[in-house]
Amino acid sequence: MSLLAGGAAAALYAEPATVGFVGPRIKGIAFDALTVFDLRPVAALADRIFPGRGEELGTLWRTRQFEYTWLRTMGRQYVDFWKVTEEALVFSCRSLKLQLTKSDSDRLMQSYLELKAWPDALVALKGLKASGMRMAFLSNFTAAMLDQAVKNSGLEGIFEDHLSTDRVRVFKPDARAYEMAMSAFGLRKEEIAFAAFAGWDAVGAKWFGYPTFWVNRAQFAAEELGVVPDGAGKDLNDLATFVHPGHSVH
Q1: Which of 33, 59, 121, 200 could form a disulfide with 117 if both were Cys (CB 3.0 to 4.6 A apart)?
Q2: What residues have CB less than 8 Å from 137, skipping those under 6 apart?
Q3: Please, what is the Cα angle at 43 between 38 and 46, to 5 degrees?
């Protein structure tokens, strides 16, 4: 279901990374939340509530979510991502002439607090942690959303404090959002890998200057914005190969 889309790019496969990052040793990884947490149950719920219309709703909802984050950042009208998600849902249903009851709205929003990790995530993340890698989420999600997803997935103790955009009150790809990882880790840009889920987020992190790996789970085409990520692959095992050439966490 196209609720997974980080934008409107056509689905094209990106070959997994086969070599590691060539540069200073990576000491920390900043993760977008959706590289770790699986959004497909939200999409499935949308289709149960609106049979035959769930994919259409999901596509518009996800697109509007991020359009609203960009507009609010540019217009200096910040609200947190939970509120943005709710506003995007209401707009999308109204635009598609779908009757959104309070109960259905609550169910769809609650599904964001029920997210769990992708099947590959736990083993890969534990391997990275055991290697001494420092890790944190650098996400538009609120800290409460991240806390709940971590708890749902049994990932306690793996990540450092969440770097939610609420800290700086701007959304990615604003440089102030990406900069949080440097301050939190106390590392240079070159020592921090950014793991992106969406192609546009990979571009934003690359613009900022991070070694960037695109966890392209949805197999989308790369954005045409003048830069490409340093590596790409299908899951967190490929990310581990990127930051630790010659080691495997499978």
Answers
A1: 121
A2: 30, 31, 32, 33, 36, 146, 159, 162, 163, 164
A3: 145
Measured CA to CA, the distance from residue 60 to residue 227 in angstroms comes to 26
Residues in the chain: 250
Residue with tokens 């990520």: 229
Contacts of 241 (CB under 8 A, 6+ apart): 17, 18, 20, 233, 247, 248
* CA angle in degrees (0–180, nearest 5) for 69-75-78: 50
Residue 58 in contact with residue 2, Cβ under 8 Å? yes
* Backbone dihedral angles phi then psi of residue 80, each to the nearest 5 degrees: -75, 170
d(CA 183, CA 63): 30
Helix (H) or strand (E) holding 213: strand 212-215
The Cα–Cα gap between 179 and 166 comes to 13
Catalytic residues: 32
pTM above 0.85, yes or no: yes
Instruction: Tell me the pLDDT of the chain (250 aa) as tens digits.
Output: 333 433 333 333 344 444 566 566 999 999 999 999 999 999 999 999 999 999 899 999 999 999 999 999 999 999 999 999 999 999 999 999 999 999 999 999 999 999 999 999 999 999 999 999 999 999 999 999 999 999 999 999 999 999 999 999 999 999 999 999 999 999 999 999 999 999 999 999 999 999 999 999 989 999 999 999 999 999 999 999 999 865 544 4
